[in-house]
Amino acid sequence: MQSTPAIGSRERRERIEHLATTTGLASVDELSELFRVTPSTIRRDLARLTAEGRLARTYGGAMPLTAHPEASLRQRIGEAYEAKQAIARAAAALVSPGEHLLLDAGSTVGALAHELRTARDLTVATTGLTALNELTDAEGVRLRCVGGDLRPLSQGFVGPMAEAALERLTFDRVFLGTDGIAPGLGICEADLAQTRLKELMARRADQVYVLAHATKLGRRPFHAWAQLPAGWTLITDTEAEERDDAADTVKQLRAGGVEVVVAPAAPQSAP
Questions:
Q1: Distance between CA 166 and CA 146 in Å, rounded?
Q2: How many alpha carbons fall within 13 Å on the CB side of residue 137?
Q3: pLDDT for 123-161, tens place per residue?
Q4: Which one, 61, 107, 167, 239, has the greatest CB density within 10 A?
Q5: Rg, the chain, Cα only
Q6: Strands 186-189 and 224-226, how do they pair?
Q7: Strands 186-189 and 180-182
Q8: DSSP letter string over the chain?
């Protein structure tokens, strides 16, 4: 976390509340470092915000009174559209004929599936309806559906049946989506069923990729986390180098051994 210039107590509390309702709050010690005040000052801020009904206290920090609502896949499809297309193109460029791929649910991985429609000699298994629909009529793709319990919001399959199917398969590459990424914690999802499945998906592939646009870097919208094996790769967009919070996350990830690929934007057409 990068520290902020010294500010007044009211503005500090407003920023703490904003963090809680957007990216999620860090620990008291991290907030203390961020705002350049003592931990006791942060605790007083949290106590006041709680007394005013603006936050709910948790062990070591606080959270918004209403949980972050999980956006539906339909809501997310138009979010950061150009960034997702760039990420999808960069991910598709890594794929070679003859490979066995595992695709997660989600809009960014769905964009990757669209890029793979013209591929040749691929075997693709997926836990997501978006990728399944994109590749149903792709002539060069042998398609497998990893079924299970369908989560309507994400349009992805989870649960024991999906896990049992994956235990019998291995893959050259897996491409995962996420709701947030935090160094040291992993990738964030709305519930434990999703994170359990993503961890299993990562264990079944030789190469692990997470597709996430810049606004997801450093975010902690939920409290369920998937830990990934060492040596995984993040594919993100150019805004990750321009936003301070995202750039800081990228720096920490690289220091921790994560490879970060920044997908170039599409070239502008001539007037």
A1: 7
A2: 0
A3: 999 999 999 999 999 999 999 999 999 988 788 999 999
A4: 107
A5: 20
A6: antiparallel
A7: antiparallel
A8: --------HHHHHHHHHHHHHTT----HHHHHHHHTS-HHHHHHHHHHHHHTTSEEEETTEEEESSPPPPPPHHHHHTTTHHHHHHHHHHHHTT--TT-EEEE-SSHHHHHHHHHGGG-SSEEEEESBHHHHHHHTT-TTEEEEE--SEEETTTTEEESHHHHHHHTT--EEEEEE--SEEETTTEEEESSHHHHHHHHHHHHTEEEEEEE--GGGBT---SSEEE---TT-EEEEEGGGGTSHHHHHHHHHHHHTT-EEEEEPPPPPPP-
Residue 67 to residue 214: CA distance in whole angstroms: 22
| pLDDT tens digits for range 1-55 | 455 566 788 888 888 876 765 555 557 877 888 888 998 898 888 888 776 656 6
Give the position of tokens 């942060």. Answer: 42
List the one residue out of 2, 10, 25, 7 whose CA is nearest residue 220: 25
Domains detected in the chain: 9-64 (1.10.10.10), 73-263 (3.40.50.1360)
| Beta-carbon-side half-sphere exposure of residue 18 (alpha carbons within 13 Å) | 6
Q: Is the pLDDT of residue 267 over 80?
A: no
Cβ-based burial of 16 (10 A; exposed 0-12, middle 13-18, buried ≥19)? buried
Residue 225 C-alpha from the chain's centroid: 10
